[in-house]
Design brief:
The structure is a homodimer. The first copy, chain A, is an alpha/beta fold. Chain A is built from twelve helices and 13 strands. The C terminus of chain A is likely disordered. Chains A and B meet through α4, α5, β2, α6 and α11 of A and α4, α5, β2, α6 and α11 of B. The structure holds a DNA duplex.
DNA sequence: TTGAAAGCGCTAACAC
DNA sequence: GTGTTAGCGCTTTCAA
């Protein structure tokens, strides 16, 4: 092919590479108006595109950032990605996407890959406990890191964008316990996901605060999947006998997928939702509102979180030392069809759309 | 920070950069066993990561490819991405993800960006009619392109991975018309998406072939969104009067989103599905099976298509001239709860999972 | 088996 | 305002 280089342009314009470079980078000074125009013309006419690699090598910046997510095919991650991608692109950065499949080893490989691509920064929506060491690898290389929706290393004050899970849990719990005689089943997430841990601990804290005994609150150990949510719920319905109605009247799942599974189990058992049992999920994945009945859930401003992480990272890359170091977003409780006293149909929830995220900074 | 360079390693090992480079690249010859071991040790110990940019500049290959999709947040695209990402990563390539938001202008920018990143190839799941010119831009630069699930420029024989939409439509139509007295509403997609056009033309071809008159087949102009599917369906139900039952007993939507909207409209109108009206969608997005009733649909092996596009691109990058130039995948008809005489519940459709994609090559 | 030197395409001091 | 000269960190002939 023999791609055009800056030298070719310089030759055609009868100037030096430096001058072309100055035009390319829109430097105000250093080039006369006439020369500039002439070079511009040649640039347009040839459609010359300077090599980002060569430029990166010379400047020490690749103008790209890595985004590591557990699983693109999750209903959750794409929103994070799209929020981040947009913000980054507008700032002239491109996105190197890494999918770990929730495998810590693959996550390590991704990080190494990003290091050798010399990304200017990394947004990490991570899993696993090796993450701490992996992040340190990046830090050692001087690569700014923003944690996205995951806490790593309890103590370390790292930059990050998080959801206020304590608040989210409180919203759901206060709603479910708004009336007396509530008996709740909480389906928790896996113990190795930080969001899951936070949500579970928040439920437990509230239970202590309110003096809930084992009769009022049962916690089931889930894993964020539909199947598990479904299985746990069928077992809970059957209880020790096969009696009906079920020994509880409210379900709170640590994510929407498990809530979905739970709904399925309830339906199969002929339990009416929300009549006999109210159900609240967590996340507000796009399909939550499409279910029948549409799922009531703790909504997180996912896309905004992605965007916020990109903004934070951009500031770090620019060399700022942002205080505060973390952005904590507030979840909202969205009541739809799986709870009582709320819009029974998706139709009525047109006003569901996020009304601008709350940025509460710590 | 002062990152380590190959020169530092060379100095520590008391050898030349060349020698280190040879070890780095696992060249069999040219380095004695002892030296090699010594260098290896230093490499591990320092955790040295060579700069992909410098390497790329020297070799002329960035070992990265661009993937352009309309919208990550679609239920459809993530599967394509994950299929492609995996294959590429295994081959040592990383993925530059570009989200066009279905905006042809943004798509142009993405392509320019990828060119100046000097990606080794591009996978394009495109939109719009300017695409032809944009692709030519890449071709002019000598960048291999694989079209993914989109046809561009009717005549040009470009490399690509496609779905056999004619076959998919036939499967659905033959099923729906398996009994006499069927009156079908076909909800088509937008006229500027190639898949949409193919599906619509296939329906029309079949209608001619079978001599279906306007009484048996009504085509509605949709746009692939839930809302439009819902609105079109409610209008169709009301028909010219407000009579019930509706003037049709089958609905075929050109994608699942519109089928979803149609289901909602039917439910709101109190029409029983599949009792009074059978519904078939297209795509088999992950949530199709989670609906109640689970959606019958024409399933495409989305993830496999992503993977296939990556494989094809990899071969092009390797300099092969693959014949055939295109891979056409076969869709399957998945009968679930919105059609009669099939598994009425998602539970029964455990065997739904793709049984290996059919690769029919043209 | 090893190394010296040139060069990939660009930017950035520092002249002129 | 413009050009010269050095690199950026690697690979790759070509000699030794």
């Amino acid at each position: 092919m023999g791609r055009l280089t800056i030298a070719d342009i310089a030759a055609r314009a009868g100037v030096s590479k430096t001058t072309v470079s100055r035009v390319l980078n829109d430097r105000a000074e250093g080039v006369g108006a006439a020369t500039r125009a002439r070079i511009r013309a040649i640039l347009d006419q040839t459609g010359f595109q300077p090599s980002a690699m060569a430029r990166g090598l010379a400047t020490g910046s690749s103008r790209s950032v890595g985004l590591i997510v557990p699983d693109v095919a999750n209903p959750f991650d794409p929103l994070l990605i799209s929020g981040a991608e947009r913000t980054l692109n507008e700032a002239g950065y491109s996105l190197l996407l890494c999918n770990t499949g929730s495998d810590p080893a693959k996550q390590g490989e991704c990080i190494r890959l990003l290091i050798d691509k010399r990304v200017d920064g990394v947004i990490l929506d991570s899993v696993g406990l090796q993450a701490e060491a992996q992040v340190r690898l990046l830090e050692r290389e001087g690569v700014p890191v923003v944690l996205l929706d995951c806490r790593i290393g309890r103590r370390a004050q790292r930059h990050g964008v998080f959801l206020d899970n304590r608040h989210g849990v409180r919203l759901a719990m206060e709603f479910l316990f708004r009336r007396p005689n509530r008996r709740l089943v909480f389906i928790s997430g896996p113990p190795d996901a930080s969001q899951s841990v936070e949500r579970r601990e928040s439920v437990e804290a509230l239970a202590r605060e309110w003096g809930l005994d084992g009769d009022r609150l049962t916690t089931l150990e889930g894993d964020f999947t539909i199947e598990r949510g479904c299985r746990l719920m069928s077992e809970a319905i059957r209880g020790r006998g096969g009696r009906r109605p079920p020994p509880f009247n409210a379900v709170f799942a640590a994510n929407d997928m498990m809530a979905l599974g739970a709904l399925k189990a309830l339906r199969q058992a002929g339990v009416s939702v929300p009549g006999e049992v109210e159900v609240i999920g967590y996340d507000d994945i796009p399909f939550a509102r499409l279910l029948d009945p549409p799922l009531s859930t703790v909504a997180q401003p996912t896309r905004e979180m992605g965007a916020a992480s990109a903004e934070l990272l951009l500031r770090l890359i620019a060399g700022e030392k942002p205080r505060p170091k973390t952005v904590v977003m507030k979840p909202r409780l969205v009541l739809r069809g799986t709870t009582l006293g709320a819009a029974p149909d998706a139709e009525a929830s047109q006003s569901d759309s996020y009304q601008g995220a709350n940025h509460a900074e710590l």
